[in-house]
Amino acid sequence: MARSPIGGGATSPDVTVDARSPRGAEHRSPRLGVLLEPYYYLSPALILIALVMFVPLVVGLSYAFQNIAILNPFKTGFIGLANFETLLFKDKVFWRSLVNTVWWTTGSLGFQFFLGLGLALLLNRPFAGRRVVQAIVFLPWAVPTFLSGLTFAWLFNPVIGPFPHWMAALGMLSEPYNILGDPGLAMWGPIIANVWFGIPFFAITLLAALQAIPKELYEAAAIDGATAWQGFIKVTLPFLAPMIAITVLLRTIWISNFADLVVVMTGGGPANSTQILPSYIFTTAYKKLDFGYASAIATALLLLLFLYAAILIQMRKRLPDTT
Amino acid sequence: MSAAVPAMPGSLLRMLGHRAAILLYVSFALFPLFWLIKIAVTPDRLLYSEGVRLWPSATTWANFDFVLLKSDFPAFFSNSMTVSFGTAIAVTLIASGAGYAFSRFHFGGKAAVVAIMLLTQMFPLVMLIAPIYRLMTPLGLTDSLAGLIIVYTAFNVPFATFLMQSFFDGIPKELEESAMIDGCTRFSALWRVIFPLTLPGMAATLGFVFTAAWSELLFALMLINSEEKMTFAVGLLTFVSKFSVDWGQMMAAAVLALIPACLFFAFIQRYLVQGLTAGAIKG
Q1: pLDDT above 60: residue B5
Q2: Closest Cα partner for B283 from B197, B166, B205?
Q3: Is residue A96 exposed (0-12), middle (13-18) or buried (19+ Cβ within 10 Å)?
Q4: Any alpha helices (H) in chain B, and if so which ranges?
Q5: N or C: which end of chain A has fewer CB atoms below 10 A?
């Protein structure tokens, strides 16, 4: 989110404060106090993140270069790049999972985004009962993900769920069977559950951005004879662009790291057709108990996400700032 | 179908389209939850024979009775409450400080700190569980609700910080500047002037984090061993593996577990939108 720099305005009153309030300021030069002040507010967050996220990350990265399989405790030790060699050159499941991760992420994200944007546009108009409707349509975000996974697994089950029967009636399936057991279609199960769960996040952020657009702009556009569609393209979209950029970036990262739905609904199967990298890491670490190899996969995923974020942020910098 | 043009006369068709679209979204949001409730009130003997029916021919409260009176779920429930409230309060306090710093100061290292926060979002959480377990065991923080709160707090602080920054951005900085010129220290300006204005934003962050902590499964599963400390998510999952799965009872527990998070979220989602709006106007 591009923000205007507020440095000059914020620092000058600090100096005034230091000059007026005698306590504590004498020992240090006021300048140092000013320089350090933001870190007083930041330090609890930074210390916590360092201890609970970065230290374990470094430990986890070091696992990637070791042989740590609980089932085989005598062969523990550093093995250099062997895990990565296996990963890149011998492991077909890894490449399969990588391709599946891209499909899982773009599929989920695309539907979440467009349906979320649609919902935000619908909610941006006044109508009777809007408050209640808004509370209801945002509910899925509050439902624990593994529970949504379970519920959707039920819904897709032909014995106890209605979806296969509806799909057969609509001609989408030849007969009501469980698509979660069909390698060609299984990925749609977790994706649909994820879309259900994720629409509210986009709707909330985009609705907020929509409400921030000054109404005068639309009035001016209407006076100039613009159609609703032109208003949307020329006024709405440019204003939404910064929010879209940040939410798409965040959600891409979150979704490609998101194992719960796949683990609960299909466990990566059938025949690895829904295996995505985070679920593959999970199975490798906690079913096969091979922590070294799991960490190597995780390292690869982290590097890919890092690359993606770097590219997206560079692209965003090159675009002319619309706000 | 945008909000662009103020409602024109004769746009009845558009209004109907709008309402129909709303209705579709509402049904899509509610249908899975409805199915959950349906299974919870279906008697065992009808579960499979009437599985596809929209509503069973007979309903029962037996599953709810069992969950509330005969199972460990009330204990799991109160564990989840402790963990989720503990996490939500800790995150909101810590993220308010950090969000305030991002919103009001221009300082050396700011870009690096923002990058670090963004970077944390990329960490494959599954990979961190084993190291965290290993590091926390000697500290006595595994199999402990406090340990779970610490982990959840750390993982939720980065996004909550961006949220809080947006809320602070919506509050004109002139407000505390003028308070400081009137002789307040920054801290008392913060406490007296800014804090009351941020309350809706803090409520939104609180609710957002509460639902996240309430839903979390993997860490709770790996870090908690003893039954009396399980959160409801872990309790539900052990339900699946331990007994011959009684889906009706499980779904009854799930329905009960949904209530706090859903109520809380329904209450705060408005502030979430408002706060983000204010930040977007200012930014």
Answers
A1: no
A2: B166
A3: middle
A4: 12-41, 44-47, 62-65, 73-104, 110-120, 125-136, 145-169, 174-181, 186-189, 195-215, 218-223, 232-242, 247-282
A5: C
Of A225, A51, A258, the C-alpha closest to B136 is A51
Other C-beta atoms closer than 10 Å to the C-beta of A124 total 18
Q: Which residues of chain B lie closer than 8 angstroms to A229, CB-CB? A: 2
Q: Which of A146-150, A172-176, B6-10, B39-43 has the lowest mean pLDDT?
A: B6-10
Question: How high is the ipTM of this complex?
Answer: 0.87
Question: Which of B22, B100, B237 is nearest residue A133 as measured by Cβ atoms?
Answer: B22
pLDDT value at residue A18: 39
Do residues A156 and A163 make contact, with C-beta atoms less than 8 angstroms apart? yes
Domain spans of chain A, in order of start: 1-63, 84-318
C-alpha pair distances (Å), B184 with each of A312, B175, B188, B242? 43, 12, 6, 60
Neighbours of A306 (CB within 10 A): 13
The partner residue sitting opposite B18, judged by closest CB among A60, A125, A204, is A125
Rounded CA gap, A280 and A300, in Å? 12
Q: Tell me which residue of A280, A192, A128 sits closest to B19, measured CA to CA.
A: A128
Structure confidence by residue, pLDDT tens digits, A12-48: 333 333 333 444 444 445 577 777 888 888 999 999 9
Find out whether A38 and A15 touch, Cβ atoms under 8 Å.
no
Does the domain at residues A84-318 carry the CATH identifier 1.10.10.10?
no
d(CA A230, CA A245): 21
Q: Indicate if the pLDDT at residue A302 is higher than 90.
A: yes
- Measure the CA–CA gap between B46 and B65, rounded to whole angstroms: 18
Task: Give the 3-state secondary structure of residue A26.
Answer: coil
Chain A residues whose beta carbon lies within 8 Å of the beta carbon of residue B222: 286
Residue B149: the pLDDT is 96
Which residues, in sequence order, are CB contacts of B244 under 8 Å at separation 6+? none
Per-residue pLDDT tens digits for A205-234? 999 889 888 888 888 888 888 888 888 888
Q: Which has the closest alpha carbon to B206: B87, B83, B80?
A: B87
What pLDDT is stored for residue B243 in this prediction? 55
**Nearest to residue B232, comparing CAs of B85, B62, B86, B74?**
B74
Distance of alpha carbon A121 from alpha carbon A73, whole angstroms: 57
Tell me which DSSP letter residue A66 carries: E
Count of C-beta atoms within a 10 Å radius of residue A163: 23
In chain A, the residue whose alpha carbon lies closest to the alpha carbon of B37 is A151
Q: Which residues from chain B sit within 8 angstroms of residue A299, using beta carbons?
A: 127
* Top-confidence range, A119-123, A216-220, B68-72: A119-123
pLDDT band at A121 (very low <50, low <70, confident <90, very high): very high
Residue A320 DSSP label: P
Q: Which of A66-75, A154-163, B26-35, B96-105 has the lowest mean pLDDT?
A: A66-75
CA angle (A183, A185, A187) in 5-degree steps: 90
The CATH number given to B72-241+259-282 is 1.10.3720.10
**pLDDT (0 to 100) of residue A176:** 84
